[in-house]
Amino acid sequence: MGELSPQQLAQIVKQRGKELGFDLVGIAPAEPPFTYTHYLNWLAQGFHGAMAYMERRKKERQDVRQVFPEARSVIIGALRYLAPDPPSRELTGRVARYAWGLDYHEVVARKLEALLDFLRALLGEGVQGKVYVDTGPILERDFAVRAGLGWFGKNTCLIHPKLGSYLFLGELLVNVALSPDPPFLRSHCGNCTRCLVACPTGALVAPYQLDARRCISYLTIELRGSIPRKLRPLIGTWVFGCDICQEVCPWNRKVAPTQEEALKPRPWAAPDLLELVTLTEEEFRERFRQSPLRRAKRSGLVRNACVALGNLREPAAVPYLIRLLREDADPVVREHAAWALGRIATHEALKALRDALATETDDRVREEIRLSLQEATMPLPQPSPRDSDPCFLPERS
Questions:
Q1: Pairing state of beta strands 24-29 and 129-132?
Q2: Which domains are seen in the chain, by residue range?
Q3: pTM above threshold 0.85
Q4: Annotated catalytic residue: which of 134, 272, 355, 362?
């Protein structure tokens, strides 16, 4: 075989990527990203919250050659993960679709590593590459746009006109010159604001701007410690991530489900909330060892389940929550169990809160117990005529 041109190599690489299971494969030049200034502004506004890793390597995000100096091309693979809904039970927690199957990091990384092996077999051992799947200092959506795989949606997700936004992205940086694809620079969101309106916590503060500190995905996964009290009622029954801004997006209406077996729903896709609040550390590690849910850790997942049960105001959860309040070693778990008991507010729940106040030593948990007791005994506000008028629609602020 004679020497292949960058155009020929690009076509061969994209074809092989499809054979490996990617739904989309695109190529971008290994150059500074378009959106680096936007990323810096996002950090400056504090929208990253407690995600210190988003700021820690910000200089490297300015140019992929900071992490791989030999890089000449960036190959981006996209894999859709939409799957049919798993069966749900009465007290089921909600899990973001991307976490329904096996850990996507490993699924996508294996495909990219196989693509790198293919390039080495084709061109020789001089081929060098580096694989990233949502773990390195790379503005991956930027490179996906540059590679023609879609546009930035108002919900801040990458959206493809045929495959929507339920897409995993992975990058393979290589020291090989490949002909880049034309960028996808035009947004097709138009005047639609469904995602902004639907977000229950107001995390989408403006089109294309996400305040992660209010995002349910951040609150249930990235945030360690206490979820702000004012946001807990807005989380509903989400225990890991959130899909609302994608569920309402018109571009996701006709997307075919994934064919990737590893991404199809596993038992943790629709977890029983009462089972979650009884998990020991050992049970958590065993049950979620192949699942993205392990990122939340046992403390975070039990905390989230407490919030979900409190929002359901489920009396059957009271004995489970009382046990957490009395016995769990983690004060964060005890705090959120107390909040849930205050929301359910049965006689048994309120008695348990009063009893715990006499024995609890953690100041934050004690304050939560006091607030929960206080709110549980407050009279409910009377609805105004405007509240009961089905024709009245409040103005959007």
A1: unpaired
A2: 6-82+102-174 (no CATH), 272-379 (1.25.10.10)
A3: yes
A4: 134
